[in-house]
Structure formats: C-alpha cells, structure tokens
Amino acid sequence: MTAPPLSCLAADDAVVEHLGPAAGWARLRALQIRSPWRGRAVWAVFRPGDRAPAVVVKIDVDPGSQVRLRNEHAALTALQHHAGVQHSVPRPVALQTRGASVVLVQTGVAGTSLAHLGRRRLRPSLRHAAREHAAVLDWIGRLQSTDGAEHRRLDADSILCRIDALGAKAQRLADRLRASRTAWDGLPVPVVPGHGDLAPGNVLWDRGAVKVVDWEGGVARRSALSDVVYFLQHHARRREAAGRQRRTARAGFRAAFVEGPLSALSAATLRRHVTRLALPAEATEALFVATVLELADGEGAAAHASLLRTAWTEHLRTYAGAKRPPLAQMLD
Amino acid sequence: MNSPGVGDAPHEAQATRMRGRGLAFVTPITSGDRVAVVGDHPAVAATAALLGAHAATCTSLAALPDASVDHVIVPDAGGGLASWAPAVARVLRPGGYLYIGAIRRGAARRSGTTPGAGRRILTQAGFGAVTVFGLRDLAQARHLVPLDSTESVRWYVRSAFPVATTGQALTAAMARIAPARWAGRLCLPALGFRARRRP
Question: pLDDT tens, B174-183?
C-alpha cells in the first residue's frame, strides 16, 4: 500500500510486528472513516478475510486536538492492565509524531455501534433499550471495579445552594432534596476510572458483548455515576429507528430523565447502579443531581467538556422544572 | 467515531464548511507539496494547508502550467471522468497523485462511470496504481470504502451505512445478505478514484 495511511508506518517496529512485514501490506485495504474533527483522518485497515479491522489508524494535524490522541494512547495503555475490561477495548499499537502530525495506531474492535443498531430498527424497541442498558451497566461496573477507590462526599449545602440559584422553577426539586437530605448528605461517592464520552456511537455490540472505543477523553477518575448519566442521556438521543429523527440534546435529556417510557427505564438503570455501588437507593435522585452538576462543571465528561458545560447546565434547569420525574417517583 | 453530542444535527452552513474535508488525506500529501482542489471545496484546501501543503482551489485546470502540481483533488467530476483525466495528467508532475470523484453508472442511471471503465480511462491517460473507492455522496465524502475489499464493504454496510429512512433500512437489510459486489452497488452510489501519474 503506497498511499495513506500505512505508507508512513512501515518503519514502525510495533506496527510491523502487528501487521506482518511491510512487503505483504499490498493486500491490506484501508477504509477512510468520517471524522467530525478538523485536521483528523481515521482509517480502518482490513486484512483479507477479517470481519473486523486489523488496526485503526488516526492521524491528527491540528495542534489543538492532537492532545486527544495522546490521551487515548495513554488510556488504552493503562487499560491493558485492567483485568475487567482489557478484552473489550482496543489495544494500543503505536503512537508517532511525524512532522506536524500525530499518528495513533490501535487494534480494531469487532462489533456494530449501538447508535447504528438503533437506526437499523424499523420501530423503537424498549426491550432492546433495556438489554443495552443492562449490558453497558455491566461493562461500567467492570471498568469501575478497581481496588482502592477514592471517595468524594456529597455536600448538601453546596448542592442545595446551586439548586436554589436556579430560581422559583426549581423549588419542587429543592424541596424533594431537602426532604431526603438525611439519606444523602455526606454520602461518600466513589471516584473511579471512567470513559468520559460514553455515547452509543462509541459502544460496540458484538454478539451480546459490549466493547468500547474512542478513549480520547482519557481514563481519568470521575464520579462513579457520570458515565452512566452521560450514556443514558446520549442513548435516549440517538435515532431510535429508521425514519425517526435523532433527538436534540434537550429532547434527549427529557426522554432519558423527565418523561416517557425511556425515562422510567433510565431511572431503574440508575437505581441499579446506585445499589451496586452499595449506596442507598433513596439517594438516587440526589446522586443524579450531583452528577449533572459535575457534568455542568465540566468534570465528568473530559472528551468534549468545553462543549458540554452549557448543555448540562440547561439540562439541570430542565430537570429542576419537571413536575414529577421518574427518579422522584422512586422516593414514594 | 462520535460527534460532540450537543445541539442538533449540523446546520447546512456547517455541513458546507466541512464538505469533503477528509479528501485531503486520500493522497499522501506532505509538507511543501502543491495541491490543486477543483470546485467549491474550501475545507479540502484548508485541511491540505494544515498538512503543510500549498493548496489552492480553482474552477478549472486550464490556467495551470504543465507538471506544476503534486496532487490534484477533484471531489466531484460528475459523470465527466473522461474529460478530466487528460487535463489532470497534464498539470500533474510525474509521480503525482490524483483523486477524482464520479457518479456511478447503474441500472437507474445511464450517465456516470463504472469502476472498470474509470480504471481504464485513467490507465489510458497515463495513470497507474488506481484504487477505486465507493462513496455514499460525492460532495461530503464521509466514508471512502475500497471496493476491491469484500471485508471493507461488508463492514461499511454492517456498521456505518447511514440509515435515516425506512427505505434506507430496507436497502441496508438487503445489502447485508447480498454478495459484497451488489452490496457496494446498493449502498455506495458514487465512486472515487485515487491514482498516481506514471513517473
């Protein structure tokens, strides 16, 4: 292969070791994948007969976003030592700096993204959504199962102060949180490794197993609920079936946490995760609000934090204005 | 790969601004190369400039001297591959690269070209190392799928073909069970040719 992307990698021992001698690369084929980022190109490289790409090559020439590829390489390297998820994430092969470009090579992962699976259906399916929630929750549980997790205590005064600052519309939420304050004030929330951009497009479904790609946000420690909340919101946003529109960020949040059949499912998923973390189920709503506040502060989602702060601040207003969201009904 | 996940689908203006951006990576552009982008595709030229190339957009190649550029990118040649090939061969230095997008001829469309015909035209015009890609749409060129790779076509149909309507869902369902050659025809109605001018 004389043209991109492999012509520039022939001198890399790790790539040659993974793909075989460069002399045989003429049989490899590279599919260029769309990237929304300026100065970024992504290729999936296939060997004859393989179902999944042999490697995925990402090249970034924009100095502003090259750090994301370095983050991803560091994350994938760290995850190779994580027994719970090491087989469900790509393996790093090489990271190079070539002139003005940063080149990341990682192994390909089999599977179809949850975003694509949703689009392929002819009608929305709550049953499939429940199955996907359960599988992703299980995967998150494995990612978070590390020894020596740190904890961050919920500070009721600080949270209630910020809810009060949202104005009269948030009064109902503030009252509910005050009523259940004893269940959550000072509660230690684990701070554990997280993905930071756990959207359905980054979650691959491979014959019932979940695999996760796109670790450009790194694997920094985050609140144990931030990946779950982020996933649930983005899962509700995706196109549920062919012919349906993808929801806006706000409509997706409403569908995920405020009203409709998906919101009841999301509430149950969130509650299951809270129970798994050995936290009291009555604290689920407070933990959710605390997580949304963290996301609005740009703490939870590292990959696109600057873009998401405003969105999550708006989501908090939306939630605060809801009359009786499913998470509140759980307190009854 | 996932979009940032905020706001609505990209506005039309944003889509225009990003149009064909990935095409700058189809040929091996390196720092200092001279790149000619034909048509209204400023994003392609801007991305080539990020790669360190001297990139310019133009509406035709007539004004360019012989053997004056290292890469020519024609994102949308419509059905006129035969008329573009000699013009590109003239302005491209020996060993330089060409990318040209063209409509695919099929049962429903008598204009355009086929992979075999396009390959023949380019070979006759003095090009070698021709790779043929399938594309969903010429202007955006989001995914470029090498058509001589069954694995790539299958993966694209299974994992990336954009299913927005019920009709597309049915097309995708048919493509998943069809032979790869037919799957490519069903899901990739445009073609992209990458070729190298013989030294």
Answer: 999 999 888 9
Residue of A32, A38, A242 with shortest CB distance to B163: A242
* Host domain of residue A299: 112-329
Helix or strand or coil: residue A11?
Answer: coil
Interface predicted TM-score of the whole assembly (ipTM), two decimals: 0.88
pLDDT of residue A331: 62
Contact B155, A44 (CB under 8 A): yes
Identify which of A50, A52, A61 has the shortest CB distance to residue B50.
A61
Task: Say if residue A96 is in the same domain as residue A194.
Answer: no
Tens-digit pLDDT profile for residues A286-332: 999 999 999 888 776 556 666 677 888 899 999 999 988 999 887 66
Number of domains in chain A: 2
Angstrom CA distances, A178 to A157, A161, A173, A278, B150, stand at 10, 11, 9, 22, 60
DSSP A194: -
**B50 residue type, one letter:** L
In a domain, A1, yes or no: no
pLDDT digits (tens, 9 = 90+) for B131-182: 999 999 888 888 999 999 999 999 999 998 888 888 888 888 899 999 988 8
Retrieve residue A216's tokens.
Answer: 């450009």
Residue A51 lies in a domain: yes
Which residues of B are less than 8 Å from A197 in CB distance?
2, 5
- Closest CA of chain A from B107, distance in Å: 26
Same domain for A129 and A258: yes
Please indicate, yes or no, whether residues A217 and A166 belong to a single structural domain of this protein: yes
Q: Assess if residue A35 is contained within a domain.
A: yes
What is this structure's pTM? 0.89
The CA distance from A119 to A240, in Å, is 6
Instruction: Name residues of chain B where pLDDT drops below 70.
Output: 1-17, 79, 107-110
Interface A-B: count of C-beta contacts within 8 A = 153
Asked whether the beta carbons of residue A197 and residue B5 sit closer than 8 angstroms, the reply is yes
